[in-house]
Every structure is written in structure tokens, then in C-alpha cells.
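Sample intake sheet
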Amino acid sequence: MSDAPKSALELAMERLRKKDADAGVEQTTLSEQQRAAIAEARSVYEARVAERRIMHQSQTAAIFDPQELELHREHLL
């Protein structure tokens, strides 16, 4: 182990691992099938977000009123 100071993230992760160990939570690795399912879910989500952004941009392209444009931008969030 190195003598370099640990980052806040490393310290927080150590505390969480200790807390999990004290609670009896076992850490397991994901199978390739699980990783593929997660990747597929991320891909579908990213595609839907991109589609929604494109639709929003096309709807707001014709709006010239700043107040109405702001309302449409709020709906995107």
C-alpha cells in the first residue's frame, strides 16, 4: 500500500465498505449477462433522452416569445 494521502472519495468508500461488512452485506461481482443487461438499459435510456431532446429542440425552434420559450425549457427539466 502506498503512503500517499487518500482522497475524500476513497475515505468515504472505505467507510461504506466497513458499514456493509458490519451489516453482513456481501459484495459480489456482476456476471457478463448482468453487465449486458445494464448496458442495454443504459443504451435504451440514452436513446430516449436524445430523442426527447431532439423533439424539444424542434418544438422550441419556432418560438420567439422569451417567456413562452422559458416555459418550454422548464418542461424539459
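Comment: Helices lie at 8-23, 32-60, 66-76. Residues 32-60 form the longest helix (29 residues).
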